Amino acid sequence: MSTQLTGPEDLTAKARIRGAAFALVAERGVHATTVRAIAQRAGVSPALVIHHFGSKQGVVDAISTWIVEYLHRNTRELDRGGDPAQALQRRLVRFERMVAEVPLLGAYVRRMLLDGQPDGLDWFRRAVDLSAEELAHRERMGKARPSTDLRSEAAMLLILGFAPVLLGPLLEHALDVDFDDERSWTRWRDAESELLTSALYPGAAADTP
Amino acid sequence: MSTQLTGPEDLTAKARIRGAAFALVAERGVHATTVRAIAQRAGVSPALVIHHFGSKQGVVDAISTWIVEYLHRNTRELDRGGDPAQALQRRLVRFERMVAEVPLLGAYVRRMLLDGQPDGLDWFRRAVDLSAEELAHRERMGKARPSTDLRSEAAMLLILGFAPVLLGPLLEHALDVDFDDERSWTRWRDAESELLTSALYPGAAADTP
DNA sequence: CCCTATGCTGAACATTCGTTCAGCTGGCTG
DNA sequence: CAGCCAGCTGAACGAATGTTCAGCATAGGG
Fold first, then answer.
1. What does each of the 209 residues of chain B score in pLDDT, given as a tens digit?
2. CATH dotted code for A12-54
3. N or C: which end of chain A has fewer CB within 10 A?
């Protein structure tokens, strides 16, 4: 079980093309990524890109399934076995580690989720499923108070947890932090913990700003 | 003070071009929007688009400043005067109304914020500023408990409040809701209110999933 | 040794892009 | 009425795009 995307033996031209396309898509988006740019970055002719993947869309699809499979390989195994109450936390920690270790993975996932691609939508939905299950388990254990709308609150937990990835540049600019720095993550985590363990508005009325 | 983007007298060709470009950018993004598509949607020749705005980038910039100015005109006035503790709430409500009334405004703002455009980054930063000010005021009033990291928690409030816009498609798919329906908004608001007025994890340790 | 399959390239293709330009129109000013 | 200017168009341009294709090299099996 490795968080590495490529082993050293995977440096065939096809793999280099895939890696180059991944980086370019993460940086610029699908539409702004050209076949020639992919080829140049991979040190290869544009024709070879088409030769291996059929078309530009073929490269894009290959990257998508490749990343989705990679994400699942590194997170799914955490869901089964052990204490389910800790499953989501392990999943988040693992995800953070992957984002930290694989350059541009965060940017790519952000695009995948926010471009409304079906892969991204499904992946997020499954994460909400898991978050809701875990929250329900905590309720049964008496470690969380009952929720009127459990699934919505589970989604909020997920959003707050994923915010440094989902909304990375936005938060970095607004908070003057840099999520390449580990301390920025822990600062966010601490604030998140405080928000969830201590009611921000202990008073009564639904008066949310 | 109107939330309308265009009055009926504003239907010059230039205005139609701007509107068409706005819709296309909101739907497909800047890069996938072509001058010819803008022209066709506005019922105009491609040359006229260039004639009025100088270049495609000119159209994009015009839209950006147009929307940013529109957002400010409809939210800034709410900040001054009256009870500052209610300013952000009024701002959020007004924003929701604008998004509901102006088609594709939500999609456009989502792109503006998430594409990392400077306009979007600055706008979000200012929103965090306001959110932090308002939270500080609530603390002084005793309506909110003290925060260790006030600005981070203010950002979290903003993220939760803007989530239906920022992460619209993601949430709609994960929660099986449709934010065109008013009830989906109130459901989200209710859950948000519950999360903020009643600690989710009343227990001790920082054990956030 | 030949011969085929594989990996790969350079040149070219048609298409689409943003942009330019000469010129048409209609209404206002002098 | 003459002149003119802003609004607007059709046709064309060069550049860039995704894709095709004939052909090069090389390694492996008969």
1. 445 555 444 578 899 999 999 999 999 989 999 999 999 999 999 999 999 999 999 999 999 988 888 887 887 666 555 554 566 677 778 888 888 888 899 899 888 887 777 778 888 898 888 888 888 888 887 777 888 999 999 999 989 988 998 888 899 999 999 988 888 988 998 898 888 887 767 764 444 44
2. 1.10.10.60
3. N
Q: Do A173 and B125 touch (CB under 8 A)?
A: yes
Is the domain B63-197 a CATH 1.10.357 member?
yes
- For domain B14-54, give the CATH superfamily: Homeodomain-like (1.10.10.60)
Global pTM value = 0.81
Strand D proximity list, CB < 7 Å: A 33-37, 46-47, 49-51, 55-57; B 12-14, 43-48, 51-52
DSSP string, B133-174: HHHHHHHHHTSS---SSHHHHHHHHHHHHHHHHHTHHHHHHH
Q: Which of A125, A138, A152 sits opposite B173 (nearest CB)?
A: A125
Cα nearest neighbour of B174 on chain A? A125
Residue B9 (CA) to nucleotide D1 (C1'), in angstroms, measures 33
